[in-house]
Amino acid sequence: MAKDLAARFPAARETLHAIDDVLGLSLSRLMFDGPEEELTATHNAQPAILAHSAAVFAVVAPHAGCHVVAAAGHSVGEYAAYVTAGALTPTDAAALVRRRGELMHQAGTERPGTMAAVLGLATADVEAACREASSNGSIAVAANLNAPDQTVVSGDPDAVARAGQACRARGAKRVIPLKVSGAFHSPLMAPAAHQLHGALEQAPFRDPAFPVIANATAEPVREAVQARRLLADQLTAPVRWVACMQQAARLAGGEERARFVELGPGKVLAGLVTRIVPNAEVVSLGTADEVATFLEAA
Protein backbone atom coordinates (compact mmCIF):
# COMPACT_ATOMS: atom_id res chain seq x y z
CA MET A 1 0.00 0.00 0.00
CA ALA A 2 2.71 2.48 0.97
CA LYS A 3 4.70 1.85 -2.21
CA ASP A 4 1.80 2.82 -4.46
CA LEU A 5 0.98 5.78 -2.23
CA ALA A 6 4.54 7.11 -2.52
CA ALA A 7 4.59 6.59 -6.28
CA ARG A 8 1.40 8.56 -6.86
CA PHE A 9 1.62 11.36 -4.28
CA PRO A 10 4.75 13.51 -3.82
CA ALA A 11 3.72 14.59 -0.31
CA ALA A 12 3.57 10.96 0.83
CA ARG A 13 6.94 10.22 -0.74
CA GLU A 14 8.54 13.26 0.90
CA THR A 15 7.15 12.29 4.30
CA LEU A 16 8.47 8.74 4.04
CA HIS A 17 11.91 9.92 2.92
CA ALA A 18 12.07 12.44 5.79
CA ILE A 19 11.31 9.64 8.25
CA ASP A 20 14.01 7.48 6.63
CA ASP A 21 16.50 10.30 7.18
CA VAL A 22 15.69 10.88 10.84
CA LEU A 23 15.75 7.15 11.65
CA GLY A 24 18.97 6.58 9.73
CA LEU A 25 17.56 3.59 7.88
CA SER A 26 15.50 2.95 4.77
CA LEU A 27 12.25 2.16 6.51
CA SER A 28 10.34 3.00 3.34
CA ARG A 29 12.23 0.37 1.36
CA LEU A 30 11.41 -2.17 4.06
CA MET A 31 7.75 -1.11 3.84
CA PHE A 32 7.78 -1.41 0.05
CA ASP A 33 9.70 -4.65 -0.43
CA GLY A 34 10.12 -6.41 2.93
CA PRO A 35 11.22 -8.96 3.94
CA GLU A 36 8.03 -9.44 5.96
CA GLU A 37 9.72 -11.01 8.97
CA GLU A 38 11.91 -7.94 9.33
CA LEU A 39 9.07 -5.48 8.74
CA THR A 40 6.86 -7.15 11.37
CA ALA A 41 9.53 -6.93 14.10
CA THR A 42 8.17 -4.59 16.78
CA HIS A 43 10.88 -1.93 16.42
CA ASN A 44 10.20 -1.73 12.65
CA ALA A 45 6.45 -2.37 12.54
CA GLN A 46 5.60 0.48 14.89
CA PRO A 47 7.40 3.26 12.96
CA ALA A 48 6.16 1.73 9.68
CA ILE A 49 2.53 2.07 10.80
CA LEU A 50 3.22 5.63 11.96
CA ALA A 51 4.96 6.48 8.68
CA HIS A 52 2.09 5.16 6.58
CA SER A 53 -0.47 7.15 8.56
CA ALA A 54 1.65 10.31 8.42
CA ALA A 55 2.14 9.91 4.67
CA VAL A 56 -1.61 9.67 4.09
CA PHE A 57 -2.20 12.70 6.30
CA ALA A 58 0.40 14.72 4.39
CA VAL A 59 -1.58 14.09 1.20
CA VAL A 60 -5.13 14.66 2.42
CA ALA A 61 -4.69 17.39 5.05
CA PRO A 62 -4.44 20.34 2.61
CA HIS A 63 -7.61 19.21 0.82
CA ALA A 64 -9.76 17.72 3.58
CA GLY A 65 -12.04 20.74 3.84
CA CYS A 66 -13.61 19.63 7.11
CA HIS A 67 -13.53 20.70 10.75
CA VAL A 68 -11.74 18.22 12.98
CA VAL A 69 -13.15 18.03 16.50
CA ALA A 70 -10.79 15.35 17.83
CA ALA A 71 -8.30 12.65 16.92
CA ALA A 72 -7.54 9.24 18.38
CA GLY A 73 -5.27 6.34 17.58
CA HIS A 74 -5.13 2.73 18.71
CA SER A 75 -1.93 2.01 20.66
CA VAL A 76 0.94 3.22 18.43
CA GLY A 77 -1.68 5.04 16.36
CA GLU A 78 -2.03 7.57 19.17
CA TYR A 79 1.27 9.07 18.01
CA ALA A 80 -0.18 9.52 14.53
CA ALA A 81 -3.15 11.24 16.14
CA TYR A 82 -0.79 13.77 17.69
CA VAL A 83 0.78 14.31 14.27
CA THR A 84 -2.62 15.19 12.81
CA ALA A 85 -3.16 17.63 15.70
CA GLY A 86 0.18 19.35 15.07
CA ALA A 87 1.61 18.34 18.43
CA LEU A 88 4.39 16.25 16.85
CA THR A 89 6.07 16.40 13.47
CA PRO A 90 6.07 13.11 11.52
CA THR A 91 9.82 12.78 12.01
CA ASP A 92 9.72 13.45 15.76
CA ALA A 93 6.84 10.99 16.11
CA ALA A 94 8.72 8.36 14.10
CA ALA A 95 11.80 8.70 16.30
CA LEU A 96 9.67 8.30 19.43
CA VAL A 97 7.82 5.32 18.03
CA ARG A 98 11.06 3.64 16.98
CA ARG A 99 12.34 4.05 20.55
CA ARG A 100 9.01 2.83 21.90
CA GLY A 101 9.27 -0.34 19.82
CA GLU A 102 12.84 -0.98 20.97
CA LEU A 103 11.89 -0.57 24.63
CA MET A 104 8.82 -2.79 24.30
CA HIS A 105 10.89 -5.49 22.60
CA GLN A 106 13.52 -5.25 25.33
CA ALA A 107 10.87 -5.52 28.08
CA GLY A 108 9.39 -8.55 26.33
CA THR A 109 12.81 -10.19 26.17
CA GLU A 110 13.56 -9.58 29.83
CA ARG A 111 10.15 -10.85 30.96
CA PRO A 112 8.50 -12.83 28.17
CA GLY A 113 4.77 -12.35 27.86
CA THR A 114 1.99 -12.99 25.41
CA MET A 115 -1.45 -11.82 24.30
CA ALA A 116 -4.69 -13.47 23.17
CA ALA A 117 -7.84 -12.10 21.58
CA VAL A 118 -11.14 -13.10 23.19
CA LEU A 119 -14.15 -12.98 20.89
CA GLY A 120 -17.82 -13.16 21.76
CA LEU A 121 -17.58 -12.32 25.45
CA ALA A 122 -18.36 -9.08 27.27
CA THR A 123 -15.34 -7.12 28.51
CA ALA A 124 -16.51 -7.32 32.13
CA ASP A 125 -16.46 -11.12 31.92
CA VAL A 126 -12.97 -11.06 30.39
CA GLU A 127 -11.76 -8.81 33.19
CA ALA A 128 -13.24 -11.21 35.76
CA ALA A 129 -11.48 -14.12 34.05
CA CYS A 130 -8.18 -12.24 34.21
CA ARG A 131 -8.56 -11.57 37.92
CA GLU A 132 -9.30 -15.24 38.45
CA ALA A 133 -6.26 -16.28 36.39
CA SER A 134 -3.75 -13.94 38.07
CA SER A 135 -1.97 -15.53 41.03
CA ASN A 136 1.46 -15.97 42.64
CA GLY A 137 2.90 -13.00 40.78
CA SER A 138 1.69 -14.20 37.39
CA ILE A 139 -0.48 -11.57 35.71
CA ALA A 140 -3.21 -11.46 33.08
CA VAL A 141 -5.11 -8.26 32.27
CA ALA A 142 -7.64 -7.02 29.74
CA ALA A 143 -5.30 -4.95 27.54
CA ASN A 144 -7.20 -3.89 24.42
CA LEU A 145 -10.91 -3.13 24.88
CA ASN A 146 -11.56 -3.13 21.16
CA ALA A 147 -15.32 -3.71 20.97
CA PRO A 148 -18.07 -4.65 23.44
CA ASP A 149 -17.45 -8.33 22.68
CA GLN A 150 -13.79 -8.25 21.57
CA THR A 151 -11.06 -7.90 24.18
CA VAL A 152 -7.36 -8.74 24.08
CA VAL A 153 -5.75 -10.31 27.15
CA SER A 154 -2.09 -9.64 27.95
CA GLY A 155 0.36 -10.89 30.55
CA ASP A 156 2.49 -13.82 31.62
CA PRO A 157 1.98 -16.85 29.34
CA ASP A 158 0.64 -19.15 32.05
CA ALA A 159 -1.81 -16.55 33.35
CA VAL A 160 -3.00 -15.68 29.84
CA ALA A 161 -3.58 -19.39 29.18
CA ARG A 162 -5.62 -19.69 32.39
CA ALA A 163 -7.57 -16.55 31.50
CA GLY A 164 -8.36 -18.02 28.09
CA GLN A 165 -9.71 -21.18 29.69
CA ALA A 166 -11.80 -19.09 32.10
CA CYS A 167 -13.15 -17.03 29.19
CA ARG A 168 -14.18 -20.19 27.32
CA ALA A 169 -15.92 -21.42 30.47
CA ARG A 170 -17.83 -18.12 30.57
CA GLY A 171 -19.02 -18.58 26.99
CA ALA A 172 -16.37 -16.96 24.76
CA LYS A 173 -16.78 -17.99 21.13
CA ARG A 174 -13.04 -18.02 20.43
CA VAL A 175 -9.73 -17.35 22.15
CA ILE A 176 -6.99 -16.63 19.61
CA PRO A 177 -3.29 -16.49 20.61
CA LEU A 178 -1.53 -13.51 19.03
CA LYS A 179 1.97 -13.46 17.55
CA VAL A 180 3.58 -10.73 19.64
CA SER A 181 6.97 -10.19 21.24
CA GLY A 182 5.67 -9.15 24.63
CA ALA A 183 2.74 -8.52 26.96
CA PHE A 184 1.84 -5.09 25.64
CA HIS A 185 -0.46 -2.75 27.59
CA SER A 186 0.11 -4.70 30.77
CA PRO A 187 2.18 -4.22 33.95
CA LEU A 188 4.94 -6.28 32.31
CA MET A 189 5.75 -3.20 30.21
CA ALA A 190 6.60 -1.07 33.29
CA PRO A 191 10.37 -0.93 32.53
CA ALA A 192 9.64 0.26 29.00
CA ALA A 193 7.16 2.85 30.22
CA HIS A 194 9.70 4.30 32.64
CA GLN A 195 12.35 4.74 29.95
CA LEU A 196 9.87 5.98 27.35
CA HIS A 197 8.80 8.73 29.74
CA GLY A 198 12.32 10.12 29.57
CA ALA A 199 12.29 10.10 25.76
CA LEU A 200 8.90 11.81 25.70
CA GLU A 201 10.11 14.52 28.09
CA GLN A 202 12.95 15.37 25.68
CA ALA A 203 10.80 15.35 22.54
CA PRO A 204 9.65 18.69 21.03
CA PHE A 205 5.96 18.33 21.91
CA ARG A 206 3.42 21.12 21.36
CA ASP A 207 -0.11 21.51 22.63
CA PRO A 208 -2.44 19.83 20.11
CA ALA A 209 -4.53 22.07 17.86
CA PHE A 210 -7.57 19.96 18.73
CA PRO A 211 -8.12 17.33 21.43
CA VAL A 212 -6.51 13.91 21.14
CA ILE A 213 -8.40 11.22 23.03
CA ALA A 214 -5.97 9.22 25.16
CA ASN A 215 -6.01 5.42 25.08
CA ALA A 216 -5.30 5.22 28.79
CA THR A 217 -8.20 7.40 29.97
CA ALA A 218 -10.54 7.87 26.96
CA GLU A 219 -10.48 11.58 27.84
CA PRO A 220 -9.53 14.51 25.59
CA VAL A 221 -5.94 15.73 25.93
CA ARG A 222 -5.31 19.41 25.21
CA GLU A 223 -1.84 20.04 26.65
CA ALA A 224 1.61 18.66 25.79
CA VAL A 225 2.52 17.92 29.40
CA GLN A 226 -0.53 15.71 29.76
CA ALA A 227 0.11 14.04 26.40
CA ARG A 228 3.64 13.05 27.39
CA ARG A 229 2.49 11.48 30.64
CA LEU A 230 -0.39 9.54 29.10
CA LEU A 231 1.68 8.21 26.20
CA ALA A 232 4.07 6.71 28.75
CA ASP A 233 1.18 5.40 30.85
CA GLN A 234 -0.29 3.84 27.71
CA LEU A 235 2.31 1.05 27.72
CA THR A 236 0.97 -0.42 30.96
CA ALA A 237 -2.67 0.71 30.71
CA PRO A 238 -5.46 -0.86 28.65
CA VAL A 239 -6.39 0.64 25.29
CA ARG A 240 -9.93 1.82 26.07
CA TRP A 241 -10.96 1.89 22.43
CA VAL A 242 -14.71 1.51 22.95
CA ALA A 243 -14.76 4.46 25.34
CA CYS A 244 -12.44 6.45 23.04
CA MET A 245 -14.80 6.10 20.09
CA GLN A 246 -17.83 6.91 22.23
CA GLN A 247 -16.01 10.01 23.46
CA ALA A 248 -15.19 11.03 19.88
CA ALA A 249 -18.83 10.70 18.88
CA ARG A 250 -19.86 12.90 21.82
CA LEU A 251 -17.34 15.56 20.81
CA ALA A 252 -18.77 15.47 17.29
CA GLY A 253 -22.26 16.15 18.62
CA GLY A 254 -23.61 12.60 18.56
CA GLU A 255 -23.38 9.45 16.45
CA GLU A 256 -25.49 10.77 13.58
CA ARG A 257 -23.23 13.81 13.16
CA ALA A 258 -19.90 12.01 13.56
CA ARG A 259 -17.61 11.24 10.63
CA PHE A 260 -14.61 9.04 11.35
CA VAL A 261 -11.69 9.04 8.90
CA GLU A 262 -9.14 6.26 9.40
CA LEU A 263 -5.64 7.10 8.17
CA GLY A 264 -3.19 4.26 7.65
CA PRO A 265 -2.90 0.64 6.64
CA GLY A 266 -5.97 -1.60 6.67
CA LYS A 267 -9.54 -1.12 7.81
CA VAL A 268 -9.50 -2.73 11.23
CA LEU A 269 -10.38 0.43 13.13
CA ALA A 270 -13.16 1.32 10.71
CA GLY A 271 -14.67 -2.09 11.36
CA LEU A 272 -14.50 -1.55 15.11
CA VAL A 273 -16.07 1.92 14.85
CA THR A 274 -19.08 0.58 12.97
CA ARG A 275 -19.69 -1.78 15.88
CA ILE A 276 -19.20 0.85 18.58
CA VAL A 277 -21.00 3.86 17.00
CA PRO A 278 -23.08 2.22 14.26
CA ASN A 279 -24.83 5.40 13.12
CA ALA A 280 -21.64 7.29 12.33
CA GLU A 281 -20.08 7.70 8.88
CA VAL A 282 -16.74 5.88 8.52
CA VAL A 283 -14.09 6.32 5.81
CA SER A 284 -10.82 4.39 5.47
CA LEU A 285 -7.80 5.97 3.76
CA GLY A 286 -4.96 3.50 3.41
CA THR A 287 -4.47 2.74 -0.27
CA ALA A 288 -3.62 5.21 -3.01
CA ASP A 289 -6.99 4.55 -4.68
CA GLU A 290 -8.87 5.33 -1.44
CA VAL A 291 -6.91 8.55 -1.03
CA ALA A 292 -7.55 9.56 -4.65
CA THR A 293 -11.28 8.95 -4.30
CA PHE A 294 -11.34 10.99 -1.07
CA LEU A 295 -9.53 13.89 -2.73
CA GLU A 296 -11.91 13.86 -5.71
CA ALA A 297 -14.86 14.25 -3.33
CA ALA A 298 -13.20 16.87 -1.10
How many β-strands, per DSSP? 9
Mean pLDDT: 95
Please state the CA-atom Rg, rounded to the nearest Å: 19 Å
Tell me the helix content: 40-55%
How do the strands of the widest beta sheet line up side by side? Answer: 3-4-2-5
Unreliable segments of 5+ consecutive residues: none
Order of helices and strands: HHHHHEHHEHEEHEHEEHHEHEH
Distance between the termini: 21 Å
The shape, in one word, is globular
**Biggest pleated-sheet summary:** 4 strands, antiparallel
Secondary structure tally, helices: 14
Assess the beta-strand content as a share of residues.
5-15%
Report what the structure shows.
The chain is of the alpha/beta class and 298 residues long. It has helices at 2-8, 10-23, 27-33, 36-39, 42-60, 77-84, 90-110, 123-133, 157-169, 190-202, 224-233, 241-251, 268-276, 288-297; strands at residues 71-72, 114-119, 140-147, 150-155, 174-178, 212-213, 220-221, 259-263, 281-285. A four-stranded antiparallel sheet has the order 3-4-2-5. Strands 1-6-7 form a three-stranded mixed sheet. The chain has a two-stranded parallel sheet with strand order 8-9. Helix 5 packs antiparallel against helix 7. The two termini are 21 Å apart. The model has no long low-confidence stretch (mean pLDDT 95).
Detail the topology: elements first, then pairings.
Blueprint: H1 2-8, H2 10-23, H3 27-33, H4 36-39, H5 42-60, E1 71-72, H6 77-84, H7 90-110, E2 114-119, H8 123-133, E3 140-147, E4 150-155, H9 157-169, E5 174-178, H10 190-202, E6 212-213, E7 220-221, H11 224-233, H12 241-251, E8 259-263, H13 268-276, E9 281-285, H14 288-297
Parallel strand pairs: 1-6, 8-9
Antiparallel strand pairs: 2-4, 2-5, 3-4, 6-7
Helix pairs in contact: 1-2, 2-5, 2-7, 5-6, 5-7, 6-7, 7-10, 8-9, 10-11
